[in-house]
Write the structure tokens for this entry.
Amino acid sequence: MFEHIPAYPGDPILSLNEDFQLDPRPNKVNLSIGIYFDDAGKLPVMDAVRRAESALLDAIGPRSYLPMAGLPLYRETAQSLVFGANSEARAAGRIATLQTIGGSGALKVGADFLRRYFPASQIWISDPSWENHRVVFEGAGLTVNTYPYYDEATGGLRFADMIDAIGRLPERSVVLLHACCHNPTGVDLSAAQWAELVPVLQRRQLIAFVDMAYQGFGAGLEEDAACVRMLAEADVPLIAANSFSKNFSLYGERCGALSVVCKNADEASRVLGQLMSTVRANYSNPPTHGARLVANVLSDTSLRASWEAELATMRERILAMRGTIHAGLAGRVDEVMRARYVAQRGMFTYTGLTESQVERLRNEHAVYVLRSGRMCVAGLNARNADYVASSIAAAVSGA
Ligand code: KET
């Protein structure tokens, strides 16, 4: 019966990460998947999360089904974190926010919603984008196109081309934008560039779908969300997916949220209802544990302060590692390639390594980066950075 089922070719990120786990070489370095490791190379349990978890275990209580839209305190705190505590749209009750299975689940629920209520609309993602964007949106039945984004020659942004392409999209098209820490390039729009993009989205009557998986890893929690707030204030039709996988180091708990900014509270309640119907049709309702942790940390003054401070430390450690690898590559790769490590921001740098150099890095040095050349700089630490730099130098020179 199942003879005709073809083999799954694997996922460019998750399958590589699984290969890494099986690699027996003791000197192996995982710079593939977007996971933050601490300076000891360990996946951290954040102190605020640990404290919230201890408190939760003491008061574990019953575990009924959550509502289809998720835990109310989680929805409230997530919305506040994304849109700002004093957001006008929030005060007006015109943002529909629901708990999702990670940021990926938010994208999928949003994609299903678009497919159902905007059946003629297509989506445009950056070139390049997170590989799974195309997979999720095509999986939901949308046609996925790209707009110019990354400039390979400079390691920067093709902003004029991007604006020009978006300015020519059909009305009601969907434009997927990364709020901060663009994946895979580490190249973001400046505040001035966002301000230039907003009127283009308005004029063309486009829907902005913002994916924010790295809030707090760019410039800071508020700074990284500034574009979302700018879009909401300008009344651009806005859908926002956010994830707590990275900024809470809670990857396996699958905590995310989807928000749709509406004209008024009545519209928001209808939109929320339709998002709930999507959830019911897919997995009925979301899980409890991670949502309780996130909601309890975000709503408790002391836990929240601890979380924010630890997140800042993580952000600063990534920056320091960017400096270390940049210094380690001095004289070993050309300056344009080397500059990217410090010019680009967030968890990733688009190294410009070719596929064969990436293969050599993995086969000969046990250093894993994605086939596209994307490196997760959050996997560097004081012990492996020199080794990674010399491995890159060897892979590039062919030595
Ligand atoms: N959006 C972006 C831009 C993103 O990089 C990820 C994860 C997600 C959404 C998914 O978030 P989650 O809450 O885990 O569902 N990216 C890393 C892991 C992955 O590919 O799944 C990565 O790019 O390595």
DSSP finds 16 helices and 13 strands in the chain.
